[in-house]
Amino acid sequence: MFRWRRGFRRLADELAEARVEQAELRRRLEAFEMIAAAAGVSRPAAREAPVPPALLAAAGERRSGDVSVRLDVGGREVFAVVGGPGDAREWWSAIRNLVGTGDEAPP
Fold this sequence. Notes:
two-stranded antiparallel ribbon
């Protein structure tokens, strides 16, 4: 039981540290963007993120019902339920927009 708690605590500490580091990186990025904007340089348009293989597979399957697909969207684990005929690229764009990452530039 104590091993589990120590392991859990270590993971929680690492997650907290990663969040602090991510906030610092975002702050630096904003500073660089402000400097670039002041110099008259615009940010390049975001290219579309590639469609995950799991979503492509779900779009290509012939099935009678819906299927759930686990996706990593902007660092978040998301489960999408897809079904029927459709374009995986449109699904991916819609999923990213719903999660709130549709307008972000890829890393």
